[in-house]
Amino acid sequence: MSQQQLMQRKADATPRGVGVMCSFIAERAKNAEIWDSEGRRYIDFAGGIGVLNTGHLHPKVEAAVAEQLSRFSHTCYQVVPYESYISLAEKLNTLTPGSYAKKTALFTTGAEAVENAVKIARAYTGRPGILAFGGAFHGRTLMGMALTGKVAPYKLGFGPFPSDVYHAPYPNALHGVSVQDSLTAIEKLFKYDIDPARVAAIIYEPVQGEGGFYAAPAEWVKALRELCDRHGILLIADEVQSGFARTGKLLASEHFGVVPDLITMAKSLAGGFPLSAVTGRADIMDAPAPGGLGGTYAGNPLAVAAALAVLDVIESEKLIERAQRLGDALKEKLNSLKPAVPHIAEVRGLGAMVAVEFNQPGSHAPDADFAKKVQQHALANGLILLTCGIYANVVRFLFPLTIEDEVFAEALGKLEAALKA
User: Fold this and answer.
1) φ/ψ of residue 238, rounded to 5
2) Could you count the other beta carbons within 10 Å of the beta carbon of residue 282?
3) How confident is the model at residue 281 (pLDDT cuts 50, 70, 90)?
4) Which residue, 75, 153, 371, 387, has most beta carbons within 10 Å?
5) How do strand 41-44 and strand 33-36 relate by DSSP bridges?
């Protein structure tokens, strides 16, 4: 069956609300490469939106899942528990920042982790309010959308949203928002809209994902920590997209020397299998009553087996160090192209969580059209790229950290051609 026929079947059988970027159907994939059903090859710089830091079908992940599948695929942990769930929780308790006692609960999606972090924070503090930030993305559930600081396309037509959620500006020097601007806005929220004594948590992304790959300034994160400590508020770090070696640290929040109270994780935790986690201080995690947390598929055994293998791969293949090396090479390439590509307004990123933002030449006006053209030219020549940003003028890079050097070099050549075209 042709690609055109398959895409027509897709259009007939699935709703338009599930937006699809590529006009081809995947047939198979390996590490950083995908082949469509007609044999065309693509280099994957999207990684399933940050899910594949260890690549498509890493041999260790594949073997771990196959071994688990030979024993059992599901019991529901809340009915019949299994050791692998406990082992993964122990590893995450050890690997995440903070020297205090920690506990971990496993879930299925990033949005589910975020929702449960909010539940845990409210249960522990007895307070309703949650503070998030402009440009944030925290999921497509109702609470996830309420926390998300971007209307189109995520919130359009879906309200009303849960109450007691507030937004402040996220620091962004390129767009004229200073650290002090953000902190002043929070203080105004506390004066205009909600008493800080009613705020359960502040949730922030150490690097904004959909918002444009803006890294949080360390001084701002430290100020958030101080603000939380002063008012008895919990600090939640949403590491769903930024975690598991992407930024040159296991978790991006490690860059700031600030320990959050709760951390949400998903995406690359399980190498392509649906799994998420909330890890935090043991006393906070124990606040909900038995039965208050969980889910039928939460901590699925196949996904847990994959996650244990992923953590092994990150360590054994030194992916934290490799992320830094690949990210530095990508930023060097992009910066070298600035003279030839005047649309480049900024190249930024921690480790391999890199982005390039485009403005109209000689202007501060965001150029979403140029970003889209770069993406389309790259795709036509076998390179899959993702855009992001509140103005849709950013191209972000989420290639597998296991990508072979020669494939990475080939991709940079395709990227240069797309930018110059």
Assistant:
1) -90, 100
2) 12
3) very high
4) 371
5) antiparallel
| pLDDT tens digits, 24-35 | 999 999 999 999
Query: Could you identify the residue written with the tokens 């360590």?
Result: 315
Phi, psi angles (nearest 5°) of residue 386: -115, 145
Alpha-carbon distances of 107 from 275, 302, 305, rounded to whole Å: 6, 13, 14
Which residues make Cβ contacts (< 8 Å) with residue 341, sequence separation at least 6?
A: 419, 420
Q: Phi then psi for 124, rounded to 5 degrees?
A: -75, -45
Beta strand segments in 137-213, E: 165-168, 199-204
Residue for token pair 């770069």: 374
Q: How far apart are CA 360 and CA 387, in angstroms?
A: 16
Report how far apart the first and last C-alpha atoms of the chain are (Å, whole number).
33
Planar angle of CA 315, 98, 183, nearest 5 degrees:
115
Burial 244-269 (b: 16+ CB within 10 A, else e): bbbbbbbbbbbbbebbbbbbbbbbbb
How confident is the model over 126-172, as pLDDT tens digits? 999 999 999 999 999 999 999 999 998 999 999 999 999 999 999 99
Helix (H, G, I), strand (E, B) or coil at 204: strand
Average pLDDT over residues 392-416: 98
Bridge partners, 104 (sequence order): 279
Return the closest-CA partner of residue 217 out of 251, 280, 247, 173: 173
Residue holding tokens 């409210």?
122
Helices marked H in 266-346: 282-285, 301-316, 319-336
3-class SS of residue 201: strand
Single-letter residue type at 126: G
Do the Cβ atoms of 71 and 288 come closer than 8 Å?
no
**Cβ pair 224, 202 in contact under 8 A:** yes
Question: DSSP string spanning 67-103?
Answer: HHHTT-S---TTTS--HHHHHHHHHHHHHSS-SS-EE
| Average pLDDT over every residue of 179-190 | 98
Q: Are 307 and 267 in contact (CB under 8 A)?
A: no
* Cis bond before residue 301 (omega within 30° of 0): no
